[in-house]
Amino acid sequence: MIVAFSVSPSGVDPDGGVSEKVARAVKVVRESGLPNSTDAMFTSIEGEWDEVMAVVKEAVAAAGEGSARVGLVLKADIRPGYENQLAAKVERVEAHLREG
Q1: Which of 6, 38, 50, 66 lies in the 20 to 30 Å Cα band around 32?
Q2: Residue 43: strand pairing partners
Q3: CA distances for 99 relative to 56, 86, 88, 92, angstroms
Q4: How far is Cα 56 from Cα 40, in angstroms, rounded to an integer?
Q5: Which pTM does this prediction carry?
Q6: What DSSP character marks residue 86?
Q7: Are 52 and 1 a contacting pair, CB within 8 Å?
Q8: Mean pLDDT of 1-6
Q9: Are 9 and 67 in contact (CB under 8 A)?
Q10: What is the pLDDT of residues 20-56, one digit of tens each?
Q11: What does the domain layout of the chain look like in residue ranges?
Q12: CA 75, CA 34: separation in Å to the nearest integer?
């Protein structure tokens, strides 16, 4: 499965920034050893249900340290029998773009 998630901890930054807290969540994901990617809006992680959800839970906790609340947006692609789809899905789209 692939899970794309975004955490939004309440911040104390006067500009409303949360990058330092979000970086803590991304660090948890990267240290998990599971395939992952991060863009401006979401972090995606691929693996089995229990392992992915455990990493998301830990990432949310890390982002929420020192915050009164954390918002979580999560989208999951659950497709049993498929692996290495984090890159493969993008590669298929890119192939279609090259074709025309």
Answers
A1: 66
A2: 5, 38
A3: 36, 21, 17, 11
A4: 17
A5: 0.90
A6: H
A7: yes
A8: 98
A9: yes
A10: 999 999 999 999 999 999 999 999 999 999 999 999 9
A11: 2-99
A12: 17
